[in-house]
């Protein structure tokens, strides 16, 4: 298959590109590197079926080849990133999603939308099944991301109903692993960086808020299963093992063998108090469930971060030309 991955240079996108190449697909990786760097995919650039394209998907784009799947992952995803890029986040969720949908329609391809557990906002239902409609503050700092993703889900669903497009929506819960940026501001990458530096782990609030952390290999397996299926979704993809942020800090200290102390900071506005996916639908419809425990996943991620600290990255910028359809 020929697969277009928007945001393919990012944390999840690069892992997805790698998995698709491994199974024999040709991969068009579109990215503007607004929250990533070409380093993530530098090791793929000599692969004969890898096609890196530097492109901003908020402008119309095409690829000069048949397309069977469009996996739309482009979007800032970490709270500090979308706080820094509020208008860009809204634009990529709206115009960027519409351009990706049009590409899929044009080529008769399946469209896979990487949505998020953030569509549930600060959930009043716990754990969160797909039927829950969410509790989002439409004007708060997180709204640029939450509402952009909710709009993207609405738009993709409208293309399915009105144009017959083959659409699949997944709602991804907190995912971690190698290739996260040490300074992306997300909790796992931040705690690991701090633990390895020996600096204090910064817990926001009292650390009683919860998240459910999924290892990236499990998540990518879910993405490919959804791409290969004919399911509409939305389908939650995440690891249902829930931890408080305070527990996560202890797990990271243990995995890193670190004696960093804990420092408490102000809780950001609208920070969800708890989050845990119901994954019955993913199990039944995709035969998917995560298998990597938090201890194992953190061990692998800490090893990658430690290795990266020893090898400063000097990978060249390998973005290729954009093929833009008028
Ligand atoms: P990331 O920031 O590492 O990757 C996003 C990629 O999109 C980056 O490479 C960025 O440069 C690119 N991008 C942003 N705007 C673009 C634009 N206008 N044109 C082209 N490329 C653009 O984040 P990630 O964690 O890999 O997330 C990937 C997707 O998965 C996002 O859509 C995110 O909302 C979704 N998601 C991720 C998580 C998670 O825990 N990682 C959870 C829920 C949803
Ligand atoms: N968090 C924290 N310290 C940090 C970064 C994040 O305590 O240095 C908290 C954050 O307030 C939230 C949780 O960890 O409650 C998960 O944050 P992240 O940004 O990783 O994901 P999201 O909030 O989008 O689920």
Overview of this protein structure:
This protein is of the alpha/beta class and 326 residues long. It is 38% helix and 17% strand. The strands form 4 sheets. The protein has a 7-stranded parallel β-sheet with strand order 3-2-1-4-5-6-11, with helices on both faces. Strands 7-10 form a two-stranded parallel ribbon. Strand 1 (2-6), helix 1 (11-22) and strand 2 (26-31) form a beta-alpha-beta unit. The radius of gyration is 19 Å and the shape is globular. It binds nicotinamide-adenine-dinucleotide and uridine-5'-diphosphate (UDP). Residues 78-79, 174, 186-187, 190, 202-204, 209, 211, 245, 268, 271 line the site of uridine-5'-diphosphate (UDP).
pLDDT < 50 stretches = 314-326
> Which radius of gyration do the C-alpha atoms yield?
19 Å
**N-to-C SSE string, H for helix and E for strand:** EHEHEEHHEHEEHEEEHEEHEHH
Q: Biggest sheet: strands side by side, in what order?
A: 3-2-1-4-5-6-11
Give the helix proportion (percent range): 25-40%
Per DSSP E runs of 2 or more residues, the count of β-strands stands at 13
CATH level 1 class label of the domain at 2-179 and 213-240 and 276-291: Alpha Beta
Quote the average pLDDT. Answer: 95
Predict the CATH topology of the domain at 2-179 and 213-240 and 276-291. Answer: Rossmann fold
């Amino acid at each position: 298959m020929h697969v277009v991955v928007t945001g393919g240079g990012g944390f999840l996108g690069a892992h997805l590109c790698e998995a698709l190449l491994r199974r024999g697909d040709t991969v068009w990786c579109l990215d503007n590197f607004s929250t990533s760097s070409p380093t993530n995919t530098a090791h793929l650039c000599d692969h004969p079926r890898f096609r890196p394209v530097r492109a901003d998907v908020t402008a119309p784009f095409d690829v000069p080849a048949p397309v069977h799947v469009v996996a739309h992952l482009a979007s800032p995803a970490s709270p500090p990133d979308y706080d820094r890029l509020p208008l860009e986040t809204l634009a990529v969720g709206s115009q960027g999603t519409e351009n990706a949908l049009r590409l899929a329609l044009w080529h008769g391809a399946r469209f896979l939308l990487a949505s998020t557990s953030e569509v549930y906002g600060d959930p009043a239902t716990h754990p969160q099944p797909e039927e829950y409609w969410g509790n989002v503050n439409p004007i708060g700092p997180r709204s640029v991301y939450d509402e952009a993703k909710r709009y993207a889900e609405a738009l993709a669903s409208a293309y399915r109903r009105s144009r017959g497009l083959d659409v699949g929506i997944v709602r991804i819960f907190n995912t971690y692993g190698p290739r996260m940026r040490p300074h992306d501001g997300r909790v796992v990458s931040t705690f690991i960086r701090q633990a390895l530096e020996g600096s204090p782990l910064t817990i926001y609030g009292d650390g009683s808020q919860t998240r459910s952390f999924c290892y990236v290999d499990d998540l990518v397996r879910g993405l490919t299963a959804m791409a290969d299926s004919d399911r509409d979704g939305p389908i939650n993809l995440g690891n249902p093992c829930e931890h408080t942020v305070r527990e996560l800090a202890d797990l990271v200290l243990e995995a890193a063998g670190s004696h960093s102390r804990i420092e408490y900071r102000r809780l950001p506005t609208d920070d969800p108090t708890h989050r845990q996916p119901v994954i019955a639908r993913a199990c039944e419809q995709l035969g998917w469930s995560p298998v990597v425990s938090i201890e194992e996943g953190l061990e692998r991620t800490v090893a990658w971060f430690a290795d990266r600290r020893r090898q400063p990255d000097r990978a060249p910028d390998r973005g290729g030309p954009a093929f833009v359809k008028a």
